[in-house]
Fold Polyprenyl synthetase.
Amino acid sequence: MAGGDSDSTARSERRGEAGYAVAGLADLALSGAGSALRGLRGLLSRSDLAELAKDGQDDLKARGRLAVRRHAKLPEPHLESLARRAAARLGERDG
């Protein structure tokens, strides 16, 4: 039974560590939310809020375009595909 007790203890310790990790993430999120709310309060008192919002929207669109280009599979360029076909044809004639 000693082996069973050590397994149970190890599982209990892992649960405790996971709980601490979750609590740490929650604390981090709450402190970040507090900071964001303080920043939002300062933001709402600005006179150029509409212009600032438009700039933010433009920045988000630009980030989105960059992210899509970075992660999307783009079609092969036309000249590249023509060169591959020509090379394949030459390979068929030679072989």
